[in-house]
Design a protein that fits this description.
CATH architecture of the largest domain: 3-Layer(aba) Sandwich
Number of helices: 16
Number of domains: 3
Strand content: 15-25%
Order of helices and strands: EEHEEEEHEHHHHHHEHEEHEHEHEHHHH
Bound molecules: guanosine-5'-diphosphate, magnesium ion
CATH superfamily of the largest domain: P-loop containing nucleotide triphosphate hydrolases
Distance between the termini: 19 Å
Strand order of the largest sheet: 3-4-5-6-2-1-7
Low-confidence stretches: none
């Protein structure tokens, strides 16, 4: 923590600009080894300068430097940000020159970790930074930004406050039993119920939040030539997959994202999905399709309206029976030969008739996709990730235990202990009492800084 770290902070492609960051006590001193400012360096003021290679004795680029003085920076430490022309070679040379001047290359997530340790943000906010960067839709961006602004943190903190007051009241009763009881049992019952409802409301946002942020993974399933690739293209409104009349020609998997009512759907077009593989390639294709089906959140099951159901359809129906499905009846522009009875053999799932080739009824399909696969929970501007959810569930079980104990008329002490345990679970969410190992583990999964 007391060393100075350096890392590129933009993806290292070629473009107009790239940025590198330093954080730690020696940031400015190290930066000034290779950055020659033209003008006075002042906190939070951009200064133009040239980049000097102090090993080779030459200038290699020009750029803008901003110096932040502790604690007024992202990490809470002294920081320097340097923007250069957008060639990664320049950035790597800056990193190299920084390291040679005494900096250390940052670990993934380390800037945000420092911000957390220095009290710049609590754990849900730090996690929101990562979630914001990873969000798969604009709705996901706005959602994670409201989390970054304290959406979840505030709710957890106020809940913690309320429970803390309860615990303290109970404990006062224990210590001074002869004094006027300030806390009626009736009140306690009500307070616990309210707290429980708040926690349940947060847990209920998990699924929705995950869908908005990460998207819903769908796989196109259907025998060769039903129109999977045609539908894939129709949904994307571009010719991404190869459409041919030779069955089983799409050999690769393609994944693309479409947004329906703010929810990203990640759709995979499967190749060589032939339940009766004719060669090694098709066998391998089938194996990989099976893997994809297992990992998917749902299945878009394609059928050909112009032909009756056959064994291949039935085999695929069996393969996907454990998943949420939407049956997409394609080629509705052709003469229908698929009967209701055929459909009933396939099992559970809503259906919709479309023509991928004619781009017909796609809006209805999208509406059905949204109905079938997206979580029914309303969007509340707050969400919980899986880590936070686990602790909320822990908190909930202790609250329920406190409620049950209350009915049994046990001593205040035991109830207070359950409330204390609930509070500890909430503090884990905020990162107040998490061990260094746990914290490092959370931050090292961050992609930022990689
Ligand atoms: N008439 C008609 N033909 C379609 C429709 N959708 C796809 N096709 C045709 O069916 C054939 C196979 O389509 P493709 O998308 O490659 O099927 P895949 O093997 O499931 O990927 C192509 O000739 C498509 O033009 C449709 O809605 N109506
Ligand atoms: Mg195909």
């Amino acid at each position: 923590m007391d060393d100075t770290i350096v890392a590129p902070s933009t993806p290292l492609g070629r473009g107009a600009l790239l940025m590198v960051r330093l954080s730690g006590e020696d940031s400015l001193q190290i930066a000034l080894r290779f950055f020659r400012p033209r003008g006075k360096v002042q906190p939070r003021k951009a200064v133009y300068g040239k980049l000097y290679d102090y090993e080779e004795g030459l200038f290699f680029d020009e750029g803008i430097m901003v110096y932040y003085k502790a604690p007024g920076s992202y990490t809470g430490e002294d920081m320097v940000e340097i923007t250069t022309h957008g060639n990664p070679i320049i950035i790597w040379r800056i990193v190299e020159l920084s390291v040679k001047a005494g900096a250390r290359q940052a670990e993934p997530g380390e800037f945000t970790y420092r911000a957390f340790l220095n009290g710049k943000m609590d754990l849900p906010r730090a996690e929101a930074v990562e979630e914001l960067v990873e969000a798969q839709s604009y709705r996901g961006v706005t959602l994670s930004f409201s989390q970054l602004e304290g959406g979840l943190s505030r709710r957890i903190a106020s809940l913690r406050e309320e429970l803390l007051n309860l615990a303290i009241l109970l404990e006062t009763e224990i210590e001074f039993p002869e004094e006027e009881v300030s806390l009626e049992r009736q009140e306690l019952v009500l307070s616990l119920k309210k707290a429980k409802e708040k926690i349940e409301a947060l847990i209920s946002q998990f699924e929705k939040g995950k869908q908005v942020l990460e998207g819903i993974k769908l796989v196109l399933v259907g025998k060769p030539n039903v129109g999977k690739s045609s539908l894939f293209n129709a949904l994307l409104e571009e010719e991404r997959a190869i459409v041919t009349e030779i069955p089983g020609t799409t050999r690769d998997f393609l994944r693309e994202r479409i947004i329906i009512k703010g929810i990203p759907f990640l759709i995979t077009d499967t190749a060589g999905m032939n339940p009766k593989p004719r060669d090694e390639i098709e066998k391998e294709g089938m194996k990989r399709a099976q893997q994809l089906i297992e990992e998917a959140d749902g299945i878009l099951f394609l059928l050909d309206l112009s032909s009756p159901i056959d064994e291949s359809d039935l085999a695929l129906a069996k393969l996907t029976s454990g998943k949420k499905r939407l049956f997409v009846l394609n080629k509705k522009d052709l003469k229908h030969k698929l009967s209701e009875k055929d459909l009933s053999q396939l099992g559970e799932g809503a259906f919709v008739k479309i023509s991928a080739r004619k781009r017909d009824n796609l809006e209805a399909l999208k509406e059905k996709m949204w109905e079938t696969f997206s979580s029914a929970a309303p969007m509340e501007g707050v969400y919980v990730n899986s880590r936070q959810k686990a602790f909320l569930e822990g908190a909930l079980s202790h609250l329920k235990r406190a409620e049950a104990l209350l009915k049994e008329n046990v001593s205040e002490e035991i109830i207070a202990e359950e409330i204390r345990e609930t509070i500890r679970q909430l503090e884990e969410i905020l990162g107040k009492i998490s061990s260094e190992e746990v914290l490092r583990n959370i931050f090292s999964r961050f992609c930022i800084g990689k």
